[in-house]
Sequence to fold (289 residues):
Amino acid sequence: RVPPPPPSVALISGSMLLADGYLMGQSPRGWWLGLGLLLSAGNICLLLVLRPVVAGAGAEAHTTRRGCTMLLWFLYIFVLEMKVYFIYRSCRAEGHCPGPPARQAFTLVLALSVPGLFALLGSPEAPEILSTFQWREELRSHLLWVVVDLLDILDVQAGLWEPPQRALPFWAEGVTFFYCYALLLLLPCAALGELSLQGPQPLPHRMVLYPLLSLLTVNLATSLIRATHLLLFRDTSVSSIFLGKNLLALALKLCMFLQYRKQWLSGPPSPQIPTDPGLISSTQAVRPT
Fold:
C-alpha cells in the first residue's frame, strides 16, 4: 500500500476548509449550525471518495501514468468550484458583501491552492524522465505553461467578485464563471493525459495537444472576454498584464508549433544520451583507462 502524498492532502484539505470558512462567514448567524453540519458531512464524504484516488495518484508519481491523478484533479476542482460559486453569489448579495481585503484574500487562496496542487500532481518522479536532462527541462516548461494558464483563468474568474460594484450583467457573469469552471476542469486533465502518453524520450508531436487547446481556449478566448468586458461593459478591473501575457503567448506558441512541425517532418528523434551533468560525471568516473 502506497501512502498518500502529504503535500497534496494538506493542500486539498486546507483549501476546502478555507472555502468553508468563507461560506460560514458570509451566511447569517442563525444558519451557522446547519451550514456547518452540511459542509462537514460533505467534506467527510469527499475524503472517503478521495482516499483510494489519492493513494493511486501517489503510486503514479513514480511513473508517467496519470489516470488516478486526473480523477483526483477533476473531483477536487468540481467540489471546490461549487463552493466558489456560492461564495461569489454571496459577494453579490445585498447585505452580505465582504470588504475588498477579504475578497482579495480569497483570490490569493485560490491562486496558491489550484496551481500549487497541479504542480504537485504533474511533477513525475519516474527514473526514465529524471535521468534525461532534455526531457526533464521539456516537462518543466510544459508544466509552467499550465500553471500560468491556471492563474490566467483564475484572474478572469476573480474579476467577478473582487470589484465592489457589479460591472457586468447577470448573464455575462454566469457565462464567464462557468466557462472558467470548464477550463479549470478539463485543461489540466488534457495536460496530464499528454504526460501519460510519453515514454523515456520526449516526442514533440505528442506534446502539442495542450498548447493547441491553450492557444484557443485561454490565449484567444480570455483575451476576447477581457476585451468584451472592457469595451462593451466598461469593466475597469480587466488585467492588462494578463492581456499582454496572452498576446506574448500567441507569438511564442506559434513559433513552437513551427518548430515542432519542422522536427516532425525531419523524422523521428534519434536516441539521446543523458546530458545531466551529474550523470556525465558519474559515467566518466567509471570509464576504464
